[in-house]
Amino acid sequence: DAYSAMARHMPDNGMQCVMFTHKDTGVWGDMVSIFWAAGLQVVGAWYIATEAATALRAGAHVQGTVILMLRKRREGGPIFRQQLLPMIRREVAGQVDQMMHLNEQAKAHGHAVFNDADLQMAGYAAALKVLTGYTEFDGQDVTALAMQPRKRGEETPVDEIVAYARRVANDHLIPERLQELSAETWREDLTAAERYYLRLLAIEAGGQFKLENHQNFARAFQIDSTELMASRSPNGARLKGAADFRPRDLLEGLLGGTTLGHVLIAVQELLNENDPKAVIDQMKSSLDSDFYRKAEHLIAVAQYHSDMLATRRPEESRAAEVVANRIRNDRLGG
Fold first, then answer.
1. At how many degrees (to 10) do helices 259-271 and 276-287 cross?
2. Helix (H, G, I), strand (E, B) or coil at 17
């Protein structure tokens, strides 16, 4: 009601500025519905870093504020899902890429500006710019659609679009070390469960062990992460290490048959003091003709695993590095 009243009383060339700080995607869905139903269109979205990370605010706190500029929606028109989703993908990817570039520039002066939660929020804001420009979605009037009472557990079209924006943002959030090793591995080879595990390895390497991180990324990657976690303590949550998995988990569970699954099996065997050559021969036998095709990805994942655990679990880190080096030498004929 408040935003509808403001839209009615503002001039046709007027603008509203909304400053918004929240990481709950459900709230974002509600906000989209408010703007949509009020006849407002997001015409600009910026993400501003407004809080510095300190010991008092360590963890997964959102460190910035989304600045949204709104105008009256003057034209609009109909849009269908198959048309809208590619447009949202381009807008979200562009926003996240721009912010990651700013992070790279900021690192030259000591530290990154935006964390993963910030980048996800920026992705949602970018999706709003596209979405709120239309008055009809899949044949339904957007005001009526947005004003429908929300039923418990029901996913609305707005929720689906916000979830899609989250997935696009996460597709672009390649862990920095893996980006250096092989960005193609993240984009072309990994399942959602593998992405979740590797992303959380980087977060744990940074000293963050909040259960909230695991829950947020499990939702983002649309998986049940229970079988991948050694602890679900609110402030001491952590992933399973190679030794924590049962062999069956790595053969049949979320990681069964995956690149990461094969690497963890090899690391597990080395921790059990099996011969490195025999371990790699077993991997080659399991992968058969896919071994050399996947060699680059296996090396990247094993090396990344080693780097993320270098200080926390040095024995596992050394085993993962042996796996990476053995595959590298085998590919080179060494």
1. 160
2. strand
